[in-house]
Amino acid sequence: MRSYTKEEKSWMWYDWGHSAYSVIISTAVFPLFYKAAAEGAGVSAADSTAYLGYAISISTLVLALLGRILGTIADYQGFKKTFFAGFSLLGIAATALLAFIPHNNWELLLVCYMFIAIGSAGSAVFYDAFLVDVTVDDRMNKVSARGFAIGYIGSTIPFLVSIAIILLAEQEILPLSVTSASQIAFFITALWWGVFTLPMLRNVRQKHYMKREPRILTNSFKSLFQTFKQIKQHRAIFIFLLAYFFYIDGVGTIITMSTAYGTDLGIESTDLLIILFVTQVVASPFAILYGRLADRFSGKTMLYVGICVYIVVCVYAYFMKSAFDFWVLAMLVATSQGGIQALSRAYFARMVPKENANRFFGFYNIFDKFASILGPFLVGVTAQLTGNTSIGVFSLVILFIIGIFILMRVPEPGSK
């Protein structure tokens, strides 16, 4: 990363550390750990997947409501990093706590998972908003995409260590139970996440802000309402957020529930872990590729490409029957999941007033979070009603179609 500034590098290192949560807790080890615990307690596969979906929905609802006020307060000088540090600490501490919860207490596992999700997503609100502080407009595609790219690579290191410990425990080469091995993986994740949060805390500062004033909380509520009116006045921002609401719903649902879905299809946990590891490796260069192609063809064009890939993913998922099909599905997701998220973040960052970045990113994340309530809830309800998770995944196609239709109507940055 020799061509990047110290602030840009420090900002990216958080992706490197935080992405360990994304793969080990959100996608891979924890879902398998939780599913095994629920199954051991007599909970059916469809019900346990549904409960996981409900837990995701509840945690995102809490953050969506809380994050808006905090995001507005964070526009004042000195608050952005404080809130970022607070949510990061919550997520890291709750991740470490997973290592000490008894495996037979699947309900407490879900509660702890919700706190981790709130900490992770909460820190992401302010992390995303820091993009306007660490770089300039014409570098945002590049920096945002590189952050996702190194995040994928960074996550593979603790993931590999965790997989090795779990597989060696399964083969009885290590004197550990699989449960203990998984709990060690949770502690490794917390440590990795914590260590690589430090450069962000030490080297990145809030450059764009409003001066502090009396009655910050009261004024924040007023500013929140004013920002909503501003968003409606900024036609491009408002339409983009509507489009983002729909297509990111499908993206987030597929990412967070893929492992539970694969388990329901009968794919072995070892196969799932290997597939997810390869997905992280493949996703890294594709995230960089999306950033470069966005500079050549425009960010919106590459968002179209990413959404179309996800439509194919949903259709293919409906017919998926074997581990090979899951491989194909995972590689399709790997080509676009980092790119679509990175370019959405960069596209939005170029559109918003920089001194109000936190409150605008607050709305960006509220659309993200409320979308994340709908998708998992839809899959959860459909799984329980039909006993078939595939139908729920297929239904996400409509969200991508609506998203791309609205995105076509987004004016270019700078338009009103």
From TrEMBL:
Pfam families in UniProt: ATG22
Subcellular location: Cell membrane
A GO molecular function held by the record: transmembrane transporter activity
Record keywords: Membrane, Transmembrane, Transmembrane helix, Transport
Membrane topology according to the record: Multi-pass membrane protein
Gene3D superfamilies registered for this protein in UniProt: MFS general substrate transporter like domains
Boundaries of every Major facilitator superfamily (MFS) profile domain copy: 236-416
Ranges annotated as spanning the membrane: 20-38, 50-71, 83-102, 108-127, 148-169, 181-201, 236-260, 272-290, 302-320, 326-348, 360-379, 391-410
Any one cellular-component term (Gene Ontology): plasma membrane
Protein name: MFS transporter
